[in-house]
TrEMBL record:
Compositional bias segments (type: Low complexity): 50-59, 454-469
UniProt name for this protein: Uncharacterized protein
Chain intervals with Basic residues compositional bias: 32-49
Biased composition annotated in UniProt, kind: Polar residues: 470-479, 550-566
UniProt-listed InterPro entries: EN-1/SPM (IPR039266)
Superkingdom of the organism of origin: Eukaryota
Compositionally biased spans, kind Pro residues: 576-586
Positions of region (Disordered): 1-142, 449-479, 542-586
Residue ranges, compositional bias (Acidic residues): 84-116
């Protein structure tokens, strides 16, 4: 038996924990909690019983404790310019896709390796798969502080290197409510964070009761972190704001992860997410790879499987996927990092150069932070960025910033002006700013109504933010215009070259024709002269000299036309007639 924290554990219990046959995570004290379940899948009995142990991931599906947390921060500075209805539709109907929508470069296969034994490939889940062991002494928990809009900053390190958002994602899985009862007597799976808020909580062994499952998820976050008292309220609000997307991402990844797990476990093949999104297993195959967080809620998993196998859902899924693939280039190159983390990585890779927010935002849409060729140049055109709209936003922001602060103001070295971003993007759309969404502080950024109230004729106007359809139409128009201009220039170039060729050909033909005519005329004159001589007749003077005879009017080549020298008698020219004798003097 092994003793730890006053609790005696047998070797069998440790083996069961390592092999995933028992729960791996309990409450804040580290002990498992018992939870009574009613007859309704994930429903609870009315009695105030203790919580049941949360299913743990198997060793095959779990990653190392220090695995990088891909779901840690909301790194997607730039969505794919989708409408809110499209985003909500994909969140509820499309079973895959993460927050980056296929844009991030580092969010796909980081941490994937072949199994150590070489028998079955390991397929890591996106983000961490295990919670750090509890309990953690309060003074040894990392001290964190909210930063920006959704970010976190570690002030004092602790026993683990996890990020709050990664722990929240695991807590959302560990406390998944399953099927939630409805008022009309039916039930539905907990697909959203609102379902977590509707399910009542039950006390654990330590007597902690958080009122709802949502409150328990956020409350247990502080079993792993501590925060300064003056930042406590803000940190709690940050945690509640992060959970809705974490729950959505959990369901987005479920189908793709199930496909990859099935191929790894039963076919011995490791496939990436891009391949998994195009594979549609059968219901029986899906049921063989139920994830650990849904193992206690099989009716809920059956609901997911039935939806994924529905031909209408598959058709809609493919339509959404095709729409996302139309996006030109990746959304950004941050990967799983926040914009501040990207700026720090870029500075480290470029000899400690400073990287202000706007510059970091522009570079994140150019390439990886570690690339030596990624640098900011305000003269770069749209082709330098992963998405042409980034260049348009930078240009509009620079113009309005200099209109407000003066022509000498350099926006790439200053902090982001939240008011200018609000004016450019017509406020927040779908909860996001037009530029630097995770960097702007909502507390210090004025709202659109406040900006309208203090606007005047001398202030920059509030511009409407173009929709996704407008941006796509403008991009298509720009691309078509550029293609037409390129075609016209190419046609004009070919036309000029053809005209030049025809002109040169015409001149050459005229010269050859004149030469042939002259040769023919001289030949005819010589024949006529020869006939006259044969007939004993004196021919008239020829208009042209014989071939090879210089013209009498040509003179020497060294005498210029305008020379003042005395006229030189031309050389004796050939003549077919003898010279006339001069008459004798009278």
């Amino acid at each position: 038996m092994v003793g730890k924290g006053g609790v005696m554990r047998t070797v069998q219990s440790l083996y069961q924990k390592a092999t995933g046959k028992r729960s791996a995570e309990g409450s804040g004290s580290g002990r498992s909690r018992m939870k009574s379940r009613g007859s309704r899948g994930g429903g609870r009995r009315r009695g105030r019983g203790s919580r049941a142990p949360s299913p743990s991931p198997s060793v095959h599906e779990s990653e190392e404790e220090e695995e990088e947390e891909v779901r840690g921060q909301d790194a997607s500075e730039e969505p794919q310019q989708q409408e809110a209805s499209e985003e909500e539709h994909e969140a509820s109907e499309d079973g895959d896709g993460g927050e980056d929508g296929g844009g991030g470069e580092d969010d796909e296969e980081d941490g994937e390796e072949d199994g150590a034994s070489g028998d079955v490939p390991k397929v890591w889940e996106r983000g961490p798969a295990r919670l750090p062991p509890r309990p953690i002494p309060f003074e040894r928990r990392p001290l964190v502080r909210p930063k920006g809009k959704r970010g976190w900053e570690t002030i004092v390190p602790g026993d683990h290197k996890r990020l709050p958002a990664g722990i929240l994602g695991l807590l959302c899985k560990a406390h998944f409510p399953g099927m939630v009862p409805l008022r009309d007597g039916g039930e539905e799976p907990a697909l959203t964070w609102a379902h977590y808020k509707r399910v009542p909580d039950v006390p654990d062994e330590d007597g902690r009761d958080f009122r709802t499952v949502a409150d328990r998820v956020v409350g247990e976050l502080w079993d792993f972190f501590r925060v300064e008292p003056e930042y406590r309220d803000r940190a709690v609000r940050w945690a509640y704001d992060a959970c809705p997307k974490l729950v959505t991402d959990m369901h987005h990844e479920a189908r793709v992860q199930a496909v990859r797990s099935y191929y790894a476990k039963f076919l011995g093949t490791k496939i990436d997410k891009k391949q998994a999104r195009t594979i549609w297993p059968s219901k029986e195959e899906y049921r063989k790879v139920i994830p650990w967080w849904c193992a206690a809620h099989k009716p809920c998993w059956d609901y997911f499987v039935a939806r994924w196998c529905d031909p209408e859902w598959q058709k809609q899924h493919e339509a959404c996927r095709e729409r996302r693939l139309k996006m030109p280039g990746p959304a950004h190159h941050q990967g799983n990092r926040t914009l501040d983390a990207y700026a720090a990585s870029w500075s480290q890779a470029h000899d400690g150069r400073e990287c202000p927010p706007l510059m970091a935002w522009a570079l994140a849409h150019k390439g990886k932070a570690s690339s030596s060729t990624v640098d900011y140049n305000p003269e770069d055109g749209p082709e330098a960025y992963s998405n042409p709209t980034v260049h348009a936003r930078l240009r509009q922001y620079t113009e309005m910033a200099r209109e407000k602060h003066g022509p000498e103001w350099n926006p790439s070295t200053e902090d982001l002006d939240g008011e200018i971003i609000m004016r450019l993007g017509e406020g927040k759309k779908h909860g996001r700013y037009w530029i630097g969404d995770s960097t702007l502080d909502t507390a210090s950024t004025p709202t659109l109504s406040e900006i309208r109230a203090r606007s005047s004729s001398s202030t920059p106007p509030i511009r409407p933010r173009p929709s996704a359809a407008q941006l796509q139409f403008e991009q298509s128009q720009t691309q078509l215009r550029e293609e037409m201009e390129a075609k016209l220039q190419e046609q004009e170039k070919r036309h000029r070259a053809e005209m030049q060729r025809q002109q040169e050909e015409m001149q050459r033909e005229m010269q050859e024709r004149d030469a042939r005519m002259q040769v023919e005329m001289q030949r005819q004159m010589q024949m006529m002269l020869h006939q006259w001589h044969n007939n004993g007749m004196l021919p008239p003077p020829l208009p042209l000299p014989p071939i090879g005879t210089p013209s009498p009017t040509q003179g020497t080549p060294n005498i210029s036309v305008g020379s003042n020298n005395q006229p030189v008698s031309p050389p004796a020219a050939w003549s077919p007639f003898p010279p006339y004798p001069r008459p004798p003097p009278i």
